[in-house]
Amino acid sequence: MTDRTFIEDQDLVEKMLKKLTPLNESSGWQCELFIDKTTNQKWEKYQFELLEADNDGIGLRRFPYPSTKEIIRIALTSKYFDEIDGASGLLLDMEFDKVEFREMLISEIEKNINNIDKDRFEIIYNRAELYETLNKREVLGKHYKQIEKDAEYFKELMAKAEGLRQRLKQIKK
Length: 173
Fold this sequence. Notes:
By secondary structure, the chain is an alpha+beta fold.
């Protein structure tokens, strides 16, 4: 499990939490820090929505977080579906802190389209909300033309993501 950066498999999270020591520190909204005293690696415990259940899931991710580029690499290459999910979810969470990832993620998907299976793409598409057209950039203090330009940018990114989705459906039939 120590080769993992993100863990959302609930059985693995439970096992891992037994090995970790709470630091009694918050690292964000509904997030707690833990440490693996054998490796000194910090882990962040967080909640996420479980689609197949009525309650939230518990996830673990290494702390501090890797770079945006590395998170995208993990989403595109991990052999663990829950790690793909966790990486994609963190990208979305980071967007609230004004970290832009969509263009870089879509570009990497385009470059690697032949190596990405439909299931992986669907996880990334849904968890990172690539279907979303909402302008995520700051609007206060901006001229309305700039706001419109930003809104158009997000619509274009969604259209690219949807185009990739359709392409994958054709390739992977």
